[in-house]
Amino acid sequence: MAKLVLIRHGQSEWNALNLFNGWVDTKLSDKGVTQAKEAGELLAAEGIQFDQAYTSVLTRAITTLHFALEEAGQLFIPEAKSWRLNERHYGALQGQNKAEAAEKWGDEQVHIWRRSYDVLPPLLDSYEETVEVQGTTYPAFDRRYADVPKGELPLGENLKITLERVLPFWESDISKDLKAGKNVVIAAHGNSLRALAKHLEHISDDDILNLEIANGQPLVYDLDNNLEVVSKKTLSK
Q1: Cα distance between residue 120 and residue 161, in whole Å
Q2: Residue 7 gets which letter from DSSP?
Q3: Is 103 considered catalytic here?
Q4: pLDDT at res. 87
Q5: What CA–CA distance (Å, rounded) separates 236 from 38?
Q6: pTM
Q7: Is 9 known to be catalytic?
Q8: Which of 71, 87, 157, 189 is an active site residue?
Q9: Fewest CB atoms within 10 Å of the CB: 30, 117, 133, 193?
Q10: Which of 63-72, 87-96, 144-153, 159-168 has the lowest average pLDDT?
Q11: For 192-223, how does the pLDDT look when each residue is reduced to its tens digit (9 = 90+)?
């Protein structure tokens, strides 16, 4: 039996400003740093010994992983990063204030874009389009995506497409470690982790809308040899 722990990154600077974040590379807020460290304290109290860590290529997830592992006394474990664990790409909504978007398009439409399984948000017009808000610019092609085929980078995603993007990395890397009996921790994002939870727990397209994963509260799965969930619990203070 192996353990899999999912940690949603701590609050980001754009979370605090109520902005659509997506693939824009923002940092943790002060509250987010505290949440990440508290996640590590919870893991230390739980006594889980990890063999492998995974995270996205976005700073808020990477630093959450490092703060958590440091507090848990396990900063030394192997770590791998993949763009496939990135947050859902919010397309043309990235950088917009959520309240202002609701005023522009209506609460119901924005709710559908945010929570539905298979409805796409407004898409970027091209891969070269940028978002500049609060001094942060996101170009679709920067160094972290240099080796990704252009057709695989999104102009916007729903949860369904996010799951389709995450699963190849799950199959090629993460699941192999778990089947080998390794304990794995993944620090990533609300929607990439919801996608993984949907896959693991066989959650329906309708029911996944109700799943929330809180910032900095580790979700612990015990998995059998077939990677079926034996038990699940959320760690919190």
Answers
A1: 9
A2: E
A3: no
A4: 96
A5: 9
A6: 0.94
A7: yes
A8: 87
A9: 30
A10: 144-153
A11: 999 999 999 999 999 998 899 999 999 999 99
